[in-house]
Amino acid sequence: KMDDDDDIPQLSSHTLAALQEFYLEQQQREGMKTSQGFNQYSIGSIEEDWQLSQFWYSDETALCLAKEAVLAAGKGGRIACVSAPSVYQKLKEQDGEDFSVCILEYDRRFSVYGEEFIFYDYNHPLDLPENLLPHSFDIVIADPPYLSEECLQKTAETIKYLTKGKILLCTGAVMEEQAAKHLGVKMCKFIPKHSRNLANEFRCYVNYASGLD
């Protein structure tokens, strides 16, 4: 019988990552060859990696959050996306808008975005490049990778270091008290959706008058 799944060799996560990287590079080369209009920022160019606890937002949610960030940052504003790559990718699609953006992300596949990519591990919340000055972003959008107080608390250190004041946090509804405690943010009416349904109810939290209510 050939249809037993047990016989399929499982790749180690390291091999898998290397393979993904290879495919990504290949896709990019192909993309650059076949069409100048290839959208390198589209979600499809980098797939979710569940081993890194990555879950992309639905297109509508990512766009809504990106637009909110642009409005909140203001003209010429600086936006930081902490572990929120799908919002970053939507921001990159907003051509001609007057703002700049950085992505702080553990997944090194996002280094394809060049200087805007900053490797980030929430376990070392202030291990950031020297040129990333404190309180240099008009708004920080963050989506801590895990629903734990420890993860939220450490990510909060990063957020507070980066932001001039405005915070847009996306995390589980169960984190409402901890979000208020560590970041002084309140839940919005807007309900973020993911491209695949998550088991945990997800919400947005802000500390300013946003368009998400």
From TrEMBL:
<keyword id="KW-0963">Cytoplasm</keyword>
<dbReference type="InterPro" id="IPR019369">
    <property type="entry name" value="Efm5/EEF1AKMT1"/>
</dbReference>
<keyword id="KW-0808">Transferase</keyword>
<dbReference type="GO" id="GO:0032259">
    <property type="term" value="P:methylation"/>
</dbReference>
<dbReference type="InterPro" id="IPR041370">
    <property type="entry name" value="Mlase_EEF1AKMT1/ZCCHC4"/>
</dbReference>
<dbReference type="InterPro" id="IPR002052">
    <property type="entry name" value="DNA_methylase_N6_adenine_CS"/>
</dbReference>
<dbReference type="Pfam" id="PF10237">
    <property type="entry name" value="N6-adenineMlase"/>
</dbReference>
<keyword id="KW-0489">Methyltransferase</keyword>
<dbReference type="GO" id="GO:0003676">
    <property type="term" value="F:nucleic acid binding"/>
</dbReference>
<dbReference type="InterPro" id="IPR029063">
    <property type="entry name" value="SAM-dependent_MTases_sf"/>
</dbReference>
<protein>
    <submittedName>
        <fullName>EFMT1 methyltransferase</fullName>
    </submittedName>
</protein>
<dbReference type="GO" id="GO:0016279">
    <property type="term" value="F:protein-lysine N-methyltransferase activity"/>
</dbReference>
<dbReference type="GO" id="GO:0005737">
    <property type="term" value="C:cytoplasm"/>
</dbReference>
